[in-house]
Amino acid sequence: MDKILSNLGLCNRASGLVSGEEIVCDYLRKNKVVYIFLASDASSNTKKMILNKASYYNVEVCESYSSVELSYAIGKINRMVLGITNKSFLKILKK
């Protein structure tokens, strides 16, 4: 597992991220998401909705990981979308 994925687990344990399509969209509307991880194997509808909302709210999206990798990193099953809510964790993830 690479450094970003292991740091996602830490971020999750510290309540620095939200997961799930609807929750991430809700946090986007409230301007509480600073970065999004979108599973590379997400459905086309999910990708379209998340990419459109992220573009509208000017939030960067990473599509480099599969749902299995993202889910394993945070210890939950079947996660397609993760939203980073803490700017300090975003700095750690981007190092």
Secondary structure: elements and pairs:
Layout: H1 3-13, E1 17-19, H2 21-29, E2 35-38, H3 44-56, E3 60-62, H4 67-74, E4 81-84, H5 87-94
Parallel strand pairs: 2-3
Antiparallel strand pairs: 1-4, 2-4
Helix pairs in contact: 1-4, 1-5
The shape, in one word, is: globular
State the separation between the terminal residues, measured CA to CA.
16 Å
Specify Rg, calculated over alpha carbons.
Answer: 12 Å
The SSE order reads: HEHEHEHEH
Order of strands side by side in the largest beta sheet? 1-4-2-3
**Major sheet attributes:** 4 strands, mixed
**Structural class, from helix and strand content?**
alpha+beta
- Runs in which pLDDT lies below 50 for 5 or more consecutive residues are none
Helix content percent band: 40-55%
Overall pLDDT metric: 93
Count the beta strands: 4
**Strand residue percentage:** 5-15%
Number of helices: 5
